Structure formats: structure tokens, C-alpha cells
Amino acid sequence: MKCSFLSALALIFALTFTAHLQASEPIDINSATAAEIAAAMSGVGPAKAQAIVDYRTEKGRFVSVEELTQVPGIGPATLERNREVVQLRDVTE
């Protein structure tokens, strides 16, 4: 019983800490890797993250966050859920 309680407590701590890191570390979708995108964005796994990178490679740098909805599998709801996590650096860099 004690072991289960400690395991549950550790899991809660880990989830809370991970959520805090994600919320406090915006990612630049113009330079992030697929792995970084998948780790930071809610509802975006490895395949969707790779689609974002592929879109960026094919079309060039994103000029607005809203452009993410042009990536197959990324809809308005996913964009809104992640708006605070995604950033764009100056596209003229």
C-alpha cells in the first residue's frame, strides 16, 4: 500500500513538473526539431511534428502561427491549445 502511494505521488509530481516545463518553454516552430515540437505541443505526436517540419522544409519559414493550420493534421483546435507554447522568431533572420 505504501509503495502504491509513493508511486502515485511520484507520478503526480512528474506530470506536474513536465506540464510546467512545457508551459514555460515556448518553441520556435521555424527552428525546432520534430522531437522538440512533439514534446512541447499538446496533441502533436511524432508524425504530426514531422509534418510540421516537412511543411517548413517545403514551403519555407512560417510567417504566422496561424499558418500551422495549413499542415495536414493540425487544425484550429490544436493551434488554440498550443498558442501559448508556439513562437516565431523574426522571419527575416
What keyword list fits this structure?
DNA polymerase, domain 1; 93 residues; 4% strand; elongated
- Per CATH, the superfamily is Photosystem II 12 kDa extrinsic protein
Q: Uncertain runs with pLDDT below 50, 5 residues or more?
A: none
Beta strands, count = 2
Order of helices and strands: HEHHHE
* Secondary structure: helix percent: 40-55%
Q: Can you tell me the overall shape?
A: elongated
Structure, described:
This protein is mostly helical and 93 residues long. The protein has a single domain, classed as Orthogonal Bundle (DNA polymerase, domain 1). It has helices at residues 2-24, 34-40, 46-59, 76-82, and strands at 27-28, 86-87. It has a two-stranded parallel sheet.
Quick rundown:
This protein is mostly helical. The chain is built from 4 helices and 2 strands; from the N terminus they run αβαααβ.
List the helices and strands and how they pair.
Blueprint: H1 2-24, E1 27-28, H2 34-40, H3 46-59, H4 76-82, E2 86-87
